[in-house]
Design brief:
By secondary structure, the protein is of the alpha/beta class. Helix content is 28%, strand content 18%. The protein contains 22 helices and 28 strands. Strand 26, helix 20 and strand 27 form a beta-alpha-beta unit. Helix 5 packs antiparallel against helix 12 and helix 8 packs across helix 11. It is elongated and about 95 Å long.
């Protein structure tokens, strides 16, 4: 039982058995007593089960929700600390945390007050251990162990930053590690305790009043230089703290440690951080990792990483170093050969580490430091009316844990019939069966799928928040995946995409991805269909993909550097569909397209530099049955070229391009001929759907699809 309580305390940010030195001293003389008793029911919803520990501002209990039969953590504000400032800060904590709904952050479920007007908030109860205890018990993490964890840290904090919230107290004891019990074996990260978070947008004046110069929030071992000065901070302060925590995870000790809290804060402001190699007394780390740490720990916020999504991307590159030697880190420093020498950590390090852990036990539990102490105002008892819009919210219960076991279970009936049962506790988007009818259904609740049939999935914006969600699908469960028109998707959101080993179709059109995401796409061994229309992916980036030659369908409308792509595609025998409209193609580019011997369908609208001469190159394509060239520089003389294309049965051109007699000749030569005429404007609803259009057309007229 004590072990269970210790793990639960961890998730609230308590170091070393849940109490700092001052709290433990008080407990020894009997000064600290639970304010609520086991069995007591709070507001007819929560029953007190046990005391988990004390934090900087109150007591934390394990409670049982009477309706949902589920345990939560309930945190109260210590009555002895209910001053005007403490009360306002408690409200701020709840406001900040209540805005956050992300799988890597602990949710605040409810904010309310007891009958005697003592405030409390209810949070998800996370069972696991902290990064601090993982380091203490097992020693430093290897880069291979640390990177997946810190990618999740980046995802969670980046989400908070996008909501205008800065954590301001990130440390190893505020990072919970939850090991999945199932076969997946993944370790999930939960960031806890936004207790001193600063709202950047809302109620700025009130926040400034709470964080005036001279009041320092945070734990000195992990505080940014500007935070140590007590000046205004932004999300880049958290980025510095991530650097300190990552440094400790890899080395076993933080980058700066002084004799006192103040001396530690001065070191953050004035001393150059040691390298990882120096801190570990000679252990080798890759140059890339050293550079990442150096940039994270820059004194000047403008010289650090400017976003944690960029950091997540660089960490993922380091993890995939063996397969991505040609890529550069976004720190914009020249790459050098990676050298890894796995040596035993010297004995002297273990001695230093034990001393550090003793000092850190005292320093890392600090939540509030006041350099210029001022008397607090007297107690200001809160009332229920004081909460305003932050009333409790039960609608979010119960929630699902996105870091647990896979979504599906396989059932084998006595007759041998095998069915895969999926359970999606909230709506994640839409799905259809593949192969099967194209009718879409909501990706929520229970979904039963015959074994051997996979899913075609379109994920919504909420699902994109959780990159780890992709790992909850087994490698063979999704064949078609679409993020289309979801601008929330950025490169790090595809970090776990390579786990979908049987994915054959990927739709990234109209998302916010760049060339950086291609390192993940290039890990899909079964990929055949790819759409990157209207993204920042370039022809140069696509052209470097090792799996480019296995694609059967590629949609890249409005792509820059399309010529570089076509140079890489030259002679591909697999490509059957190419959508490359609005890409500034020239006659020479069409010469390269003509080297694709098995091309069935080509949509090349709105390439005005294409002339009649360039169009003639396509006559060499013996299997080309569908062509879209509206908005190009061709003339009525192209009619003879169309007649020379042996397999052409569907043609899209600009309105008025072909004369009536030319159309009659085309239809007489091929009875199933279909002509579509368009005005000379970008018909954006045509080219993204060419694949489906072509397949539907061929099905209507008989014959095989591609």
């Amino acid at each position: 039982m004590e072990e269970e309580h210790g793990a639960a305390r961890d998730h609230l940010g308590f170091a070393d058995k849940g109490m700092n030195a001052e709290t433990r001293a008080g407990a020894e003389v009997g000064l600290l007593k639970p304010e609520l008793s086991p069995g007591q029911v709070i507001n007819q919803r929560y029953r007190i089960e046990s005391v988990l520990g004390r934090g900087g501002m109150g007591v934390v209990y394990r409670v049982r929700h009477l309706s949902f039969k589920r345990d939560f953590a309930l945190k109260t504000l210590d009555k002895s600390q209910i001053t005007d400032v403490a009360w306002r800060r408690f409200q701020q904590e709840a406001k900040a945390a209540s805005q956050l709904d992300h799988p890597n952050l602990v949710r605040v479920i409810e904010l309310d007050v007891l009958e005697d007007n003592q405030p409390y908030l209810v949070m998800d109860l996370v069972e696991g251990t902290t990064l601090a205890k993982r380091i203490q018990n097992q020693g430093p993490l290897s880069p291979e162990e640390a990177i997946p964890l810190f990618v999740q840290v980046c995802f969670g904090l980046a989400y908070a930053h996008e909501k205008g919230i800065v954590h301001r107290d990130l440390k190893p004891s505020n990072i919970m590690l939850v090991d999945a019990a199932g076969p997946s074996g993944n370790t999930a990260v939960k960031i806890v305790d936004f207790g001193i978070a600063k709202l950047l947008r809302a109620e700025e004046g009130e926040v400034q009043g709470l964080t005036r110069t001279g009041e320092i929030f945070g734990s000195p071992l992990y505080m940014s230089p500007e935070q140590c000065l007590g000046v205004a901070v932004d999300h880049r302060s958290d980025i510095y703290s991530v650097g300190c925590v990552l440094f400790e995870a890899l080395c076993g000790l933080p980058p700066f440690l002084g004799d006192t809290a103040l001396s530690t804060m001065l070191k953050h402001q004035s001393e150059k951080p040691p390298t990882l190699k120096e801190a570990t007394l000679g252990k080798e780390f890759s140059p890339e990792m050293e550079r990442v740490i150096a940039q994270l720990l820059e004194k000047d916020p403008a010289r650090r990483y400017q976003s944690l999504r960029a950091l997540a991307l660089d960490l993922s590159k380091i993890q995939q170093e063996k397969d991505a030697h040609h890529e550069e880190l976004t720190v914009n420093l020249e790459r050098t050969q990676k050298a890894i020498s796995r040596k035993m950590v010297p004995l002297s390090y273990a001695i230093v580490s034990s001393v550090i852990s003793g000092l850190a036990m005292i320093l890392s539990t600090s939540v509030f430091y006041s350099l210029n102490f001022k008397p607090q105002s007297g107690p200001a008892a809160p009332t229920r009316d004081a909460f305003g819009p932050i009333a409790h919210n039960q609608s979010v219960l119960p929630s699902y844990d996105p870091d647990s076991e896979p979504f599906s279970r396989l059932q084998v009936k006595p007759d041998g019939m095998r069915t895969r049962h999926f359970y999606f506790p909230e709506k994640l988007g839409y799905y259809s069966l593949y192969p099967g009818p194209s009718k879409r259904s909501s990706l929520s609740g229970r979904v039963d799928v015959p074994d051997g049939v996979s899913l075609s999935v379109t994920l919504n914006t909420e699902a994109v928040k959780d990159p780890m969600l992709l790992k909850r699908f087994r490698p063979d469960e999704i064949s078609v995946l679409s993020f289309a028109k979801n601008r929330s998707l950025v490169d790090p959101g595809l970090f776990y995409l390579p786990s979908l080993k049987k994915l054959i179709s990927l739709e990234l059109g109209q998302t916010s991805v760049t060339n950086e995401c291609l390192q993940f796409v290039d890990k899909l061994p079964s990929l055949k269909y790819l759409s990157v229309t209207d993204t920042d992916i370039t022809g140069d980036g696509l052209g470097k993909m090792q799996r480019l030659g296995q694609l059967q369908s590629l949609s890249c409308k409005h792509m820059r550097d399309a010529t570089r792509l076509l140079e890489s595609l030259r002679g591909s025998t697999e490509l059957k569909l190419l959508v490359i409209g609005g890409a500034n193609l020239t006659d020479e580019d069409f010469r390269m397209i003509a080297t694709l011997p098995n091309l069935r369908a080509l949509s090349a609208d709105y390439n005005p530099a294409l002339t009649d001469a360039g169009l003639k190159h396509l006559v060499a394509l013996k299997h080309l049955h569908t062509l879209r060239v509206q908005g190009c520089g061709i003339t009525a003389k192209s009619a003879a070229t169309f007649l020379s294309m042996p397999a052409l049965i569907s043609l899209g051109v600009s309105q008025g391009l072909l004369k009536a007699n030319d159309v009659a000749r085309l239809k007489a030569d091929r009875p199933n001929f279909d002509l579509q005429k368009f005005a000379n404007e970008d018909s954006g609803d045509i080219t993204p759907d060419v694949k489906q259009e072509v397949e539907d057309y061929i099905e209507r007229h008989g014959g095989n699809t591609f």
